[in-house]
Amino acid sequence: MIKIEDVTIAYQKQTVLEKVNLNIEKGIITTFLGPNGSGKTSLMSSINGTIKPAEGSIFIDGRDISKLKTKSLAKIVATVPQLYNFNFNFSVFDMVLLGRAPHIGYMPKAEDTEKVEEAIYHIGIQHIKNKEFNKLSGGEKQLVMIARAIAQDTEVILLDEPTSYLDLKNQLKVLRIVKEINSLKNVTCIMTLHDPNHALMYSDKIVLFNNGAVETGTIDNIINSKSIFDVYGVKAEIVNIANRKYVIPEY
Question: Taking every annotated instance into account, which residue ranges of this chain make up the domain ABC transporter (predicted)?
Fold first, then answer.
């Protein structure tokens, strides 16, 4: 689905990722896992065209994204950002409608409104659709941004640290919704996360970022005591409880 070939990303001559080769399968949840500054968000930003790699190419279904116009790429890839600041105080409905921008010509059509209503219903935020976005809680804002990505109606959804700034209840709610979107719509989801346990619970594949390189595998073979120490410098025990793996760090 997504093929990353020899991608190098650098800022002001400082290399963040070097010669990364990675295949991301269609219709599954892949999680980028690693410490701060390891290149997770940078690689995600290169997939949505925000960052242009210093070297290498990225293909989605065989299409070189560097040759696609911004609007064309936005019909393929939607992004739920980590941080969002809006000077205009849009309603929730209008925020979700922004997801339809790649499909709208001069004015929104009935289909665009239907897609927005469908996304709002799917996420379960009908009760706040007329509220002002800037007055919502952090958890509510995150749900609105996910609804916006759904309304965009793309093959791929990127979620950059979707659980940041959320309490435990809302972290799990957001991750469950991502799982539902993936299952019901067969959308390819790519997340960046900090918590290895969340990655184990909600991912099909995990990509570990460490010192400018990446390593990929399933949840059964990629997370172990050695990999956790190599990536985070933390000693941890991997335990199985009710057929689930958990990372238990030493403290």
Answer: 2-236
